[in-house]
Amino acid sequence: MSRMCMSLLQWTxxxxxxxxxxxxxxxxxxxxxxxxxxxxxxxxxxxMAIGLPATVIFDRLQPRLHGRPALKQWGTYLGVLLVIVLVxxxxxxxxxxxxxxxxxxxLWDVYRNGLVISxxxxxxxxxxxxxxxxxxxSLHRSQSAATEARLASLESRVRPHFLFNALNSALALxxxxxxxxxxxxxxxxxxxxxxxxxxxRLVTLxxxxxxxxxxxxxxxxxxxxxxxxxxxxxTELHAREVPAFxxxxxxxxxxxxxxxxxxxxxxxxxxxxxxxxxxxxxxADDGPGFSxxxxxxxxxxxxx
Length: 304
Description:
Helix content: 55-70%
Strand content: 5-15%
Shape: rod-shaped
Structural class: mainly alpha
């Protein structure tokens, strides 16, 4: 049974249970113990005769109606409810006659009155149950969309080819440098965890720099001495806030176009300076670069 079906089932049962409880509470001031017991039994019969079939049938209908137009869903639910109430009210009336609580001559009066009261209770309860179920379904869809967006964000920030290269580097290190291979995997795990946990667009510069170091050390396992780097960042700036992966994206750009593109590699310098409330971040490398007039597609800066 799906999560959404369970939700509708629970809301329907809760609604009929609360309506039964409300009816009992309203009866307390005006009746004695014996009459209260009789009314309790009658209320229970109506609640069970309508509530149980409704929960079971709605539970079966839910997956079949999923994705259909809202008007058709509401029409189906209310139409089924009307049939249930018509049949259940008649059956309860017959039971009351058979056990001697109601005279057979009053069967149709009891049926008519029970039908009106049952509809007055069952329709709002059903509408409320379905509405709450639809709200939970909408919330569930929103949460699923948010999760997919976070995973898409992870894929856009941590490229598949980077993951492939990082894992290959770790595997290559295992025979001769197992501790370094373990370090690469730990740094990769930290980078992935940071990407998933960075729900807010802003992180501290200190957190961002730790990600940058993890990224560079992972790449050093692949490039070796071809990749050198330096962080020139005063400690007092570590508490400043920056967009998550903003610095890492720029550093990755340098690795791609400076280190990877040259046989001798390159040196990357990350430099940060404070200017009042502003933060100046500079990523420099001694690679070949490219002209600002000729902007190469795929440089990764559009993500900023």
